Inverse folding.
């Protein structure tokens, strides 16, 4: 795949000096000068994913840059963290622009809300599985605007009607096909034409798509298999120092004693920075910085949160959840229906705090100067990061340059700018650029966690077993209240109740409410799958309880409640069929089903598990049916179903962050366990093709998997799990 | 202390404390950022490099333990037949997501195929279970190793 298309071009001053620096190391893997242009041109490592503002002669909008050499650059408004968004968004643009994906390079957008805001989130933020949904129309329009202008430029030169011309693979042809001009040849002329309003351009009919809907290759694969891909942690600048950091183990604590002398005695250590909430040791390389940090033998004053414990947090949730909350949904009369029901069920469900534990530990490189501040980081939240750094430095937003990078796993962690804020606080004391890297232990112990939720449910069944009453109270922290206020309406956190307020089933009398409970000494944040990760587990487990209470098959029972919801019924039926629901299984094996509507997509999963006599659970196979409407790239969807499912399954089997004496008890991959290759089940994806509006897919599989697995465990053992993670001790045959 | 390290067949002089992990010498002193930091405790495999063809976790390999051993990193593994075959398979099967762990995954897989050209599922589990991927690309990693090995 390498060749002239692998051009990275960086035009800003910092990049130029960075080039010089990298050249000095003798480690440049490839250079491809595009010539012709007077701007600085740079490809190192030779890459289709490049950083920062690149100017192009033809720039009809924020997303397309074409210069006279023919280089086509697509500017990516959303961050790439593995979800395949650079490929999907490139496909949307390229489809209408009429260029091949092999003809383009992609680049990270700079911070610019006016050009790059996600219409779903109203800000330049990558999250909520919203990128394709938000950019489905705008990027196709942007591509079509570009194509129309290039065609108009060619038609003008030939003196013909633009309607008689067409474009393909970056070339405009006349009606006969004998005349043709490349986009590069047309770039200067097209740049002088008026830009038509995006809403006025005609978009292709889906039946005419040649790229959207295909298994196009990822644009970022080739640089991720040989070490060339640059993540934030790989930033390197002339004169840069590297800092290891220790943050107060208790939120709100301060450094009490720091042995600066011992730290400075370590070879290559340059400086100790004490900002109370954290201590950084600055050195020429991370080996020295870490050694210096250890030598500093920091002791801490715990502050007000030194007694925080999980037991107290859960007790608080248990108490608060007894009080009525803010109503998320109230239809019919659930109280009356419950009182009159033939059979009643009640249950309490709980899910733990969870860390993100992305593979790339938290890091940020800062160069703070008198009149500007440059930030090299991988972030999902460009706009927020820029605002917070402006606030912290007192510099105008325009002076804050965020150089975004590929992200080594986001999962919601990089929606937060706390790592950047901390790095800037440290950089204020450092002369020249400094890269702050958290250890894995710091990363896990100073995460912002998926909240602990405590749920109370009740249901009333009629004589035929149908649910005539359904109540669900959710108690837990509100992330939306802090992070995205318009999702927090009159005390109701719309994310915390997503997929609980509106389960896919026919429930004539339903009451769902939310009690906000903020745990002391714990920072909470979005985590892949957000509200639905907990709600789908709760709703689908309880629905399973209802089916078993009336001795009905869980699939048949659900089908009976989905007559009004054909898309949910279709995914349920497809998953059950592909998993051969009802076919015999060996002893100690079981199948479980779950269904959800979340992030604009319908999913259903069947999990097949084996539970050994010692209680250990082996998940053997997961079948997932997906209806996410019109889709861009089926291979990306399958990859997200595979990966998203494993992310949720990892949490269901192993994930729990707990607090004792204000401290997180887990620290690295030996106490906060990731799933490994010898543990993973086969994940199969079955995609339904239709013409519905696009739905999100990055988080949906994470949300749905837990219930499928615990329902399968019930089928195998008769034991109902109402809290996560799965506790093998509770599943021992003898217990 | 001064050390001469043979990295990807080229000698490099570095002057660091002998207990400095090889990882930081590669990344920070020499600017070879393809080898990744993941955990610092040899628990995740993101920092895997080869010493004389054997996979080691560079975050737990002090530079004074390297001696004359030949170091191979992700930047040069494509020059070995196993590395090239794996990289090709990784592209054909679209293994990567965020990509951060993939340097280490490919280094571990290349060492596996050198010793065991036709690995079984059990061989793959044994050789690869030290490498963590939080994106969950394991299913494709397994398939790509088999594809590269022709099994």
């Amino acid at each position: 795949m390498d060749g002239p298309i692998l051009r990275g071009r960086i035009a800003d001053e910092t990049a130029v000096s960075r080039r010089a620096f990298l050249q000095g190391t003798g480690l440049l893997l490839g250079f491809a000068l595009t010539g012709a242009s007077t701007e600085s041109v740079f490809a190192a490592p030779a890459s289709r994913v490049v950083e920062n503002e690149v100017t192009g002669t033809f720039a009809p909008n924020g997303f397309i840059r074409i210069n006279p050499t023919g280089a086509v650059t697509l500017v990516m408004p959303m961050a790439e963290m593995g979800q395949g968004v650079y490929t999907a968004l490139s496909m949307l643009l390229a489809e209408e622009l009429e260029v091949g994906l092999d003809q383009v390079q992609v680049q990270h957008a700079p911070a610019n809300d006016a050009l790059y805001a996600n219409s779903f989130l109203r800000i330049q933020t990558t999250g909520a599985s919203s990128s394709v949904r938000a950019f489905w129309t705008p990027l196709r329009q942007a591509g079509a605007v570009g194509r129309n202008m290039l065609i108009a430029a060619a038609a003008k030169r030939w003196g013909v009607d633009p309607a008689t011309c067409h474009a393909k693979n970056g070339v405009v042809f006349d009606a006969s096909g004998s005349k043709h001009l490349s986009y590069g040849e047309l770039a200067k002329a097209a740049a002088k034409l008026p830009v038509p309003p995006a809403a006025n351009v005609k978009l292709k009919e889906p039946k005419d798509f040649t790229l959207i809907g295909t298994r196009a290759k990822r644009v970022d694969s080739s640089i991720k298999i040989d070490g060339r891909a640059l993540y934030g942690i790989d930033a390197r600048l002339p004169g840069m120092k590297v800092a290891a950091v220790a943050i107060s183990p208790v939120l709100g604590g301060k450094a009490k004693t720091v042995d600066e002398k011992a730290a400075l005695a370590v070879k290559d250590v340059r400086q100790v920075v004490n900002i109370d909430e954290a201590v950084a040791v600055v050195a020429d390389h991370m080996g020295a910085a870490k050694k210096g940090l250890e030598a500093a033998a920091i002791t801490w004053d715990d502050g007000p949160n030194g007694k925080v414990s999980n037991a107290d947090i859960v007790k608080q949730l248990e108490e608060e959840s007894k009080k009525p909350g803010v109503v998320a949904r109230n239809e019919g009369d659930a109280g009356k229906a419950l009182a009159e029901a033939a059979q009643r069920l009640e249950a309490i469900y709980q899910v733990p705090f969870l860390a993100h534990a992305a593979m790339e530990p938290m890091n940020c490189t800062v160069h703070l100067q008198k009149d500007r501040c440059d930030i090299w980081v991988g972030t999902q939240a460009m706009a927020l990061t820029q605002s917070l750094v402006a606030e912290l430095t007192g510099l105008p937003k325009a002076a804050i340059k965020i150089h975004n990078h590929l992200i080594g796993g986001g999962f919601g962690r990089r929606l937060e700018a706390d790592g950047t804020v901390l790095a800037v606080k440290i950089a204020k004391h450092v002369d020249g650029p400094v890269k702050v890297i958290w250890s894995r232990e710091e990363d896990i112990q100073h995460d912002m966690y998926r909240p602990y939720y405590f749920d109370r449910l009740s249901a009333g069944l009629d004589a035929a077993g149908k649910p005539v009453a359904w109540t669900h109270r959710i108690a837990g922290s509100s992330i939306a209240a802090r992070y995205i206020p318009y999702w927090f309406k009159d005390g109701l956190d719309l994310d915390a109740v997503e997929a609980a307020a509106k389960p896919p089933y026919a429930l004539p009398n339903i009451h769902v409410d939310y009690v906000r409970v903020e745990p002391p000494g714990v920072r909470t944040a979005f985590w892949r799958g957000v509200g639905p990760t907990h709600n789908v587990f709760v709703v689908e487990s309880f629905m399973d309880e209802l089916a078993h209470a009336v001795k009905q098959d869980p699939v048949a029972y659900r089908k009976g409640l989905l007559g009004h919801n054909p898309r949910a019924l279709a995914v349920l039926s497809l998953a059950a069929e592909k998993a051969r629901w009802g076919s015999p299984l060996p002893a100690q094996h079981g199948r479980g089903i779950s269904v959800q509507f979340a992030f604009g997509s319908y999913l259903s999963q069947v999990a097949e598990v084996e539970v050994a006599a010692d209680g250990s659970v082996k998940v053997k196979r997961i079948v997932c049916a997906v209806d996410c409407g019109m889709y861009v790239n089926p291979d990306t969807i399958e990859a997200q179903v595979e990966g998203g499912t494993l992310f949720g399954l990892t949490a269901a089997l192993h994930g729990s962050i707990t607090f004792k004496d204000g401290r997180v008890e887990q620290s690295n991959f030996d106490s906060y366990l990731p799933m490994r290759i010898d543990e993973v089940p086969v994940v199969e994806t079955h995609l339904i093709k239709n013409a519905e509006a696009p739905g999100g897919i990055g988080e949906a599989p994470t949300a749905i998997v837990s219930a499928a697995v615990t329902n399968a465990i019930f089928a195998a053992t008769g034991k109902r799990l109402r809290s996560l993670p799965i506790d093998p001790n509770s599943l021992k045959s003898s217990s | 202390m001064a050390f001469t390290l043979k990295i990807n067949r080229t000698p490099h002089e570095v002057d660091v404390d002998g207990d400095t992990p090889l990882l930081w010498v590669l990344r920070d002193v020499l600017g070879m950022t393809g080898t990744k930091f993941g955990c610092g405790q040899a628990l995740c495999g993101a920092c895997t490099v080869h010493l004389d063809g054997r996979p080691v976790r560079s975050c737990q390999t002090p530079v004074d333990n390297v001696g004359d051993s030949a170091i191979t990193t992700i930047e040069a593994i494509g020059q070995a037949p196993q590395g090239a075959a794996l990289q090709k398979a990784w592209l054909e099967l679209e293994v990567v997501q965020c990509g951060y762990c993939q340097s280490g995954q490919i280094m571990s897989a290349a060492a596996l195929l050198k010793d065991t050209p036709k690995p079984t599922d059990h061989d793959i589990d044994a050789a690869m279970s030290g490498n963590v991927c939080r994106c969950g690309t394991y299913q494709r990693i397994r398939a790509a190793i088999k594809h590269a090995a022709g099994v």
Q: What stands out?
A: Helices of chain B lie at 22-29, 81-92, 102-115, 121-128, 138-149.
